[in-house]
Amino acid sequence: MKKIILGVFSVFLLFSFISCDFFVTSLGSGMQRDLNAALKKESAGDLAKLAKDPQFQDPSSGVAVLNALSGKSEADIQALSVSEQESIMDLALAVSVPTSALNDLADIAQNDDPEALFNSILESINSFDTTVLQAILNDEDAQESASAESLISASVALVAQVMKREGSDLEFEDLQDLIDGGNISESSITEESKADLQAVQAIFDLFITGDRKDEAIDFFGLSLEDLFGGN
């Protein structure tokens, strides 16, 4: 239980320190509505370009970009270049937890209080439509050619979204078991969360037993087992 909590926390913390210059002032509600409407009109390719733009990588704008991308067809998302898909996957993790929450998370982690850390993470996670990440992680080209770091970034972002969506109804032991070979389709979580975890499981299997099992995974100092497996 502690391993997956601290694994997710550590990735958020380290990635956000590296990407701290991405976060800018959030948009007001009126501007946010205008942004959401405007982004819906953009093509998947243009939205992928915005995923690289620092002006669209704060939580509010980043969520809007991801939601707009999730409104595109799976074919459009999978037609993007691997580089464009990597930008989207990296954005998903970068906007998941704002930098303002990191000090609180660090304090809780140092006090070794997993329940408080779990609750703090839940409160801090920015929700977004995860359809775009499911499409990318299920794309054979992305599985074969995308960087391990980006694939795991997207996987961790999906786990965070499942945590946020399911809350206290999903025990960490159950979440870890589901990712590590459990029967996701028979679990009691929502269909959206099942699809998220099935995408994560595909990446877990890819690097543990699949075609990329020989790659050494060192994601900001954490192995794949640190993030999703082990006791």
The helix-and-strand class reads mainly alpha
SSE series: HHHHHHHHHHHHHH
Low-confidence stretches: 1-6, 8-27
Give the N-terminus to C-terminus distance in angstroms.
Answer: 7 Å
Q: How much is the average pLDDT? A: 77
How much strand? Answer: under 5%
Count of DSSP H/I helices: 14
Biggest sheet architecture: none
Number of strands: 0
State the share of residues found in helices, binned by percent: 55-70%
The whole-angstrom Rg is 17 Å
Give the overall shape: globular
Name a few traits of the molecule.
mainly alpha, 14 helices, 231 residues, disordered N terminus
Please sum up the structure shown.
The protein is an all-alpha fold and 231 residues long. It has 14 helices and no strands.
Descriptive report:
With 231 residues, the chain is mainly alpha-helical. The protein is 65% helix and 0% strand. The chain has 14 helices and no strands. The protein has helices spanning 2-18, 29-40, 44-50, 59-70, 74-78, 82-94, 102-110, 114-124, 131-137, 140-145, 148-166, 172-179, 191-208, 224-228. Helix 6 crosses helix 11 (148-166), helix 7 runs antiparallel to helix 8 and helix 11 (148-166) packs antiparallel against helix 13 (191-208). Mean pLDDT is 77; it is low at 1-6 and 8-27.
